[in-house]
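Homework help board

Subject: predicted structure for assignment chain

Our instructor gave us this sequence and asked us to write out the predicted structure in token form, then describe one feature. I got the tokens but I'm not sure how to describe them. Can anyone check?
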Amino acid sequence: MSQPLLEPIKLHDLELNNRVIMAPMTRSRAVGNVANSLMATYYAQRASAGLIISEGSQISEQAVGYINTPGIYSAEQVEGWKQVTDAVHKEGGKIFLQLWHVGRMSHPDFHGGKLPVAPSPINPNDKAYTPEGFKDTVTPHELTIPEIKQIVQDFKTAARNAIDAGFDGVEVHASNGYLLHQFFVSTANVRTDEYGGSVKNRARILFEVLDAIREVVPQHRIGVRLNPSMHGGFGITVNEDTIPTFDYIVEQMNKYSLAYLHLTEASPANKDVPHIEPQVAKRYRPLYTGNLIINGGFKQKTGNQVIADGDADMVAFGVPFIGNPDLVERFAENAELQQADPGKFYAPGPEGYVDYPTLAEVEA
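My token output:
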């Protein structure tokens, strides 16, 4: 019986062997914010994915908010990532780099005592993971308009660096409570200038980022990630503005010829929350005319079904790819999946990272 997940797909000029996408996942194995050979091994092991979307990579020093995460703003970081892209391409894979700015989800410990930045000086009242462990977030510095313009340029520079590092494209991380998402949300953004107030103004920075990036990267090699129904984390809460905001953003995406739009489904725990969209793929598939990736708790069966139903073109899998480097092959064989060890998701070293056996190795 054929599986939609295993059918090839073209993202404009980029041919993917299947529709099983490796979701971006922070794994905290970088050293000094530089990608390394251990990371190259990890990604190469998973190169049978139709497309790998890398873990978030900071676009600047200001963008850092977690320990041991890789950047893409220095020459050394570009060289570090070249190890990864070379290894993935050698195995016949395709890989995009996720461009990341955490905004207020950082801590002064990362910035020489300076405050993290955000659209408005509103503390998310969460925890930041610093070199000294978890610490309470602080009230961030409200970005000035010149500072916002600089961040847009930082995204552009980072995108150019990603292509120099050998990536097949880039994904703009406008999701999961980080900087761009903070601009979208009216409880996190109370600005009264051109970046606040109306839906158009709160979304403005994303389209400025896309316009800047497409000056250095073909727009059909750019993806965007959104999480329209995120609620209750990193200070992000849905309200009456949420659905109209994301409807506008998604519809505006049709003006671009992007590689894909990458959406996350609502958490099962939040599906009954007022003002939340409980079925993200079903809502946004009719609104978006390009390639759509859906993510969020999918299994082999449900992943095949969402594509067969026409609600998405591809499905991104996160944790299943941690424990199963050969996830595509296991789907093809309808084989049992290995369980990943959550205690080692962010631990240093190879354990729980590159030591999960393939099906062929298990059966040998």
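Reply (TA_rk): Your tokens look well-formed. For the description, you could write something like this. The mean pLDDT is 97. That's the kind of observation they're looking for.
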